[in-house]
Amino acid sequence: MAGPVEPDGPAQPDGPAQPDRQVEPDSTARPGGPVEPIVETRDLHKSFGENQILKGIDFAVNPGEVVSVIGASGSGKSTFLRCVNLLEWPTSGQVLYHGRDVLARGYKVTNYRTKLGMVFQQFNLFNNLNVLDNCVIGQVNSLGRAKSEARERALGYLGKVGMERYVEAKPRQLSGGQKQRVAIARALSMEPEALLFDEPTSALDPEMVGEVLSVMGELAQSGLTMVIVTHEMAFARDVSDRIAFMDGGVIAEEGPPAQLFGAPEKERTKEFLARFHAG
Ligand SMILES: Nc1ncnc2c1ncn2[C@@H]1O[C@H](COP(=O)(O)OP(=O)(O)OP(=O)(O)O)[C@@H](O)[C@H]1O
Ligand SMILES: [Mg+2]
Q1: pLDDT digit string (tens) for 100-145?
Q2: Looking at residue 52, what DSSP letter applies?
């Protein structure tokens, strides 16, 4: 059976299931040991034709960290996330997963792709599948899990986001906030090591933003590793360990929320935040 295709990306390679390579997510850094980033980018570049979008991004996310990425529209935030999880292939630079460059020739990217979950602005649910099957199909097709086990896990994560009563519903029967909570449960069902969010609340009616941010806040509290592109500054300040400000295809400044929001060092960070507060 040909599975549905992610509407917002290239078809996932239908590689063989690799259950033997699965590891339980280890979201706790060993006390006293060196902290090794889950994912790191070095001098990451991405161009579309002549148009250089990412101009050398050095970034890392450690186990259990919550990092928010902020920046003006067009600064390259989505492109960056999509290069990290290889929905876009970077033009140059490195993407290291536990220290190994996934861009290197011969590296098996199928396994890597299952390790990073993604939540999109437009949900990207499979409209022909009900809520439960949306959360089951990736587990079966990409991880090789038995359907019964996949269902059980999906139900657990749907419960976590408060959507267990909607398992039979089709996406069109749900509100935007409910769809996004299902999309989060779907991503969690894959038990990724880190979850990437690309403006998860930007497409929502204002009254639904809170329910999605509240789920995300709980996930952050639970120790999940998260990279969140967002314009929700108050949320970013409250849940993040670190904020990265992107401008013109580079990370112009990064630091703990109190520092970046309270005492930004770079002129362009100050300008962005001032514009944001004014707007
Ligand atoms: N597939 C593509 N082909 C050509 N240009 C692209 C493609 N994807 C993104 N771009 C360009 O890259 C630039 C950065 O886009 P990107 O979507 O990464 O910005 P962003 O920071 O996520 O903005 P926003 O806050 O509006 O989502 C834009 O000028 C965009 O037109
Ligand atoms: Mg974007």
Answers
A1: 999 999 999 999 999 999 999 999 999 999 999 999 999 999 999 9
A2: E
Q: What is the pTM of this model?
A: 0.88
Calpha distance 219→116 (Å, rounded): 15
CA angle 84, 44, 220 (to 5 degrees): 40
Q: Smallest Cα–Cα separation from 76: which of 97, 57, 59, 91?
A: 57
DSSP 62-111: -TT-EEEEEE-TTSSHHHHHHHHTTSS--SEEEEEETTEETTSTT--HHH
Residue pair 245/252 in contact (Cβ under 8 Å)? The answer is yes
Q: Whole-number mean pLDDT of the chain? A: 90
Atom 30 in ligand 1: residue holding the nearest Cα = 74
- For residue 220 the two structure tokens come to 């952050």
Residue of the CA atom closest to atom 29 of ligand 1: 74
Ligand closest to CA 10: 1
What are the structure tokens assigned to 98, written together?
């536990």
